[in-house]
Automatic annotation (TrEMBL):
Belongs to the BioY family. This is Biotin transporter. It comes from the Bacteria. The chain crosses the membrane at residues 55-72, 78-103, 115-138, 144-167. InterPro entries: BioY. It is a multi-pass membrane protein.
Amino acid sequence: MKTKELVYAALFAALIAVLGLIPPIPLGFIPVPITAQTLGVMLAGCFLGRKTGGLSLVLFIILVAIGLPVLTGGHGGLVALVGPSAGYIFSWPISAFLIGWASEKIWLQVKTWKLVVINLIFGVIVVYLIGAPVMALITNTSIWAALIGSIAFVPGDIIKAVIAAIITMQLRAISPIEEKVQA
C-alpha cells in the first residue's frame, strides 16, 4: 500500500470522527441514534475506492476500540463496540469496501445518480441488514422490530447518499479511483 493511500485512509477516519461531533438525534423507540457518520462511510467508499475506503473504516474502528471519543456524542471504547450500535459500526468497513468496489466498476461512466444508487444499496441497505439484527440480539428484541425501527433512518440516509454522490462527483478529478483508472 502506498503512503498516499495510507494518508487518505487516515484523513477519512479523521473526517468520520469530525462528523461524530455533530450531535446525534435520539429516536426514543430505538437505542441507536441518527448520526452524520454514515455520510463519511459513503464518502470513503465512493471517493477512495474499495481498498482505501474499507481501510479507513477499519482504522476508525481501531480508534474507537482504543477508547478515543470519535463516535457521535463523544463515545468510544470497547463498550461502544458491544452495545446496540455495534452491528452498525462493524458494518461500516464492509459498506465502504462494497461502495468502493461498485464505484470503481462504474468509474469510467460514473454519474451522480449511479453513485446515489450504489450508496443506497451498499451504504444503507447493507448497513441495516447487518446492524439491525445485531441490535436485536443485543437488546433482546425481534429482528423484524429492529428492521422496522431502522425505517426511521431512511430519510436522512437518502439525503446522505445524495450528498456523498454530489461531493464525490465534484472532487472526481482528485479521487484515488481516478488515478487508478488513468494509470
